[in-house]
Amino acid sequence: MSTSNHTVKEARPQAGLPSVSTEVRIRHFLKLLTSYWLSSDWMFAWFGTAFLLGSKYIVIYMSVQANSWQHSFYDVVQNKQVDLFIPEIIKFFLINGCSAVVLVLDVYFYGMFSMRWRTFLTTEYVARWMKNNGFYSMERAALIDNPDQRIAEDIKDFTNSVMAIVVGLFGSITAGISFGSVLWSAAAPIRFLIAGYHISIPGDMLWYSLLYTVLTTGAIIWVGRPLISRTMRQQQVEADFRFGLIYIRRNAEQIAFLDAAPTEVQSLREAFDRIKKNYHRLILAQMGINATGHIFDSVGKLLPVFLTIPKYFAGTLTFGGVMAAQDAFRQMTSSLSFFYQAFQSFAQQIANVNRIWAFDQVLERGGASGIQVIKEDSREIAARDLRLDFYHNASLTIGDWTILPGQRWVVVGPSGIGKSSTMRAIAGLWPDGAGVVQVPSQGLTMFVPQRLYLPIGTLKNAICFPGSPDAYDDDQVISLLSVVGLQKHAQRLHESRSWADQLSPGEQQRLALVRILLYRPDRLVLDEATSALDMANALHFYATLLERLPSVTLISVVHDERLTPFHTHCLRLAAEGVTQSALDPEEETVC
Ligand SMILES: Nc1ncnc2c1ncn2[C@@H]1O[C@H](COP(=O)(O)OP(=O)(O)OP(=O)(O)O)[C@@H](O)[C@H]1O
């Protein structure tokens, strides 16, 4: 028999993200942005980008053609050239027909490309989240909120808004250049006098439209500054509210038993009030942007009229020239106004990237572990200098512990002492602490917790999980259902259900035994696997297990000491120390 101490230790550092420089964040953003173009799908990524930008260019080219059509059409009207009227109308339909075809193709390809990019990022993030049970560590240590939202929503929004911004930016620059040249051709010099010098700047229409756009964009950005932080806050409060709803669903029965619906409604109301409050502030910011945009829009409609009409009256510009210049002015200012229109999506983008960044940080930190788990080519499970650390400044020192093949260890101790955590440490799921856990690399080690995981699907699928149901005969499964007294469910083997909600906790624990007997593991770790069973059923569970798998190496956490006779050794965890002892079933040794 050996002893070790349960001691108080230093406070565990709080889970949280280290603060990093803007440079690191920018590097992360660029990596996220470019990873698809450097992936194995790079051909599609590059060709797709070229196609998208190409089609955007054609759309703009067609609108430049439409602008030039306006010029010639209104000149034809002004000069009363009746013979050219019909050809001009045909030209109109040709230009608009081609535009329509390109626009439709563009919409289709845009959607396809964005889904392919999203698929790439989603697959990558799901794989990283699941790797080495990272999803479990995140939940256990509450490292980050709502990883599901980060994978499902943030990545979708990221790909959508980056595409909108990049394609929109390309479009606005191309349109700016194309319509800028139209404006240049309708321009006169700007003349003014400074300190006795006559200054003349050519291209008045172009400069006025640029100045107008800069003023609009500057004003919108200034007015909409608070939008970024409010959008980020909105995403956070929306996620909290959604999580609250999910949490109620997850604990529906417990809440119903407690008749605690009014309390839950109250906390949901408070969470929703936070949404409402921030949404109000968000709307105010959007209102400011819309009002400013509207004022500039109205001015933008009149401005080209005032700029071109004097030239028409002076005879330096034809009527077609006036119409074309006005259209070009509007096209150019509206394409450049993309910057302010994209402002809101930009605000959302920053919030998304921040959330994905935080998720990445946690994923990268994932592997760190104080307790080392190594696989050895031996048949024993062994712990060396094992110490488990808990969040409440306590630790549990197990020390050295060896489980030889065929031995059956019972682990007992008061609630909260660390029995389940010790099992987690053996499975490599409890990283906090120190020491080494050595597990055999050969054969199957199976861990069975109190609550069995039953995926949604057929009963057979749930029993055989994680293996394929096709790997086992129906007859074999049905006969094992009878062994554990669940023959009444044999008819439902191929029924699809959420079995975790359909079976009682005790039935689920009996299903665990069916799963164990199907898999026939070499080593079995049971963590209160019979806690929901009455004593007769619990005794039957252990008796059946040992009858069918007599040489299994067993570690089981139990609360009821009537189950200790099924074991050969005992590990007792207590505040004053951990003890190990051999049990003699003949003499009914107390653990
Ligand atoms: N996911 C977790 N995150 C943080 N602390 C945890 C987590 N799970 C357990 N703990 C803490 O670790 C300590 C040991 O818990 P553990 O579940 O191992 O106790 P136990 O001996 O199995 O208790 P019981 O007999 O009640 O099941 C407890 O103080 C508990 O608060």
UniProtKB/TrEMBL annotation:
Pfam family membership, one: ABC_tran
Residues of the ABC transporter domain: 381-590
Intracellular or extracellular location(s): Cell membrane
One example GO MF annotation: ATP hydrolysis activity
Residue intervals passing through the bilayer: 42-64, 84-109, 162-185, 205-224
Chief place of localization: membrane
GO cellular component: plasma membrane
SMART domains from the UniProt entry: AAA
Domain ABC transmembrane type-1: 73-348
Keyword Transport among record annotations: yes
Record-linked PANTHER family: ATP-BINDING CASSETTE, SUB-FAMILY D MEMBER (PTHR11384), LYSOSOMAL COBALAMIN TRANSPORTER ABCD4 (PTHR11384:SF59)
Protein name: ABC transporter permease
Phylogenetic placement of the source organism: Bacteria, Pseudomonadati, Pseudomonadota, Alphaproteobacteria, Rhodospirillales
